[in-house]
Amino acid sequence: MSAVPPSASQNTSGFHDFLPLMADKLGGDGLIGELCNGFNLLMDAEKGVITFDSLKKNSALLGLQDLTDDDLRSMMKEGDFDGDGALNQMEFCVLMFRLSPELMEASQFLLEEAFEHEFRDFH
């Protein structure tokens, strides 16, 4: 069961469809790079993590300006695996995959593609 309230899912539905498109176009490495760019846009530059305040301040940059404070808090809570009240880069990337059901299904393929690429480079 998702901790993101229905209103957050509704407001980010366009975002859900965008991640698989990015994955198809950019491949696994490119998608991760874009997620890292998204993290950098949302993070608190002094703390190096995404805080509630930095997410609220910068969410419009990713088209999430319509989310309520409760929606943003729920997203933070769902992604905050270590319980420190903020999202580090890994937590943010995992959260973005979790918020995109179609991308979650495709993530196995992306992982295999990345391993194959690394294996080819190894030999």
UniProtKB/TrEMBL annotation:
Q: Which Pfam families match?
A: EF-hand_8 (PF13833)
Keyword GTP-binding: yes or no? no
- Provide the alphabetized UniProt keywords: Calcium
Which residues fall in a coiled-coil region?
Answer: none
Q: Does the keyword Nucleus apply?
A: no
Q: Which residues form the EF-hand domain?
A: 67-102
Q: Known InterPro entries for this protein?
A: EF-hand-dom_pair (IPR011992), EF_Hand_1_Ca_BS (IPR018247), EF_hand_dom (IPR002048), KIC/PBP1/KRP1 (IPR044205)
GO terms for molecular function, please?
A: calcium ion binding
Q: Which PANTHER family match?
A: CALCIUM-BINDING PROTEIN KIC (PTHR47319), OS06G0683400 PROTEIN (PTHR47319:SF6)
What protein name is recorded for this chain?
Answer: Ca2+-dependent modulator of ICR1
- Which species does this protein come from? Hibiscus trionum
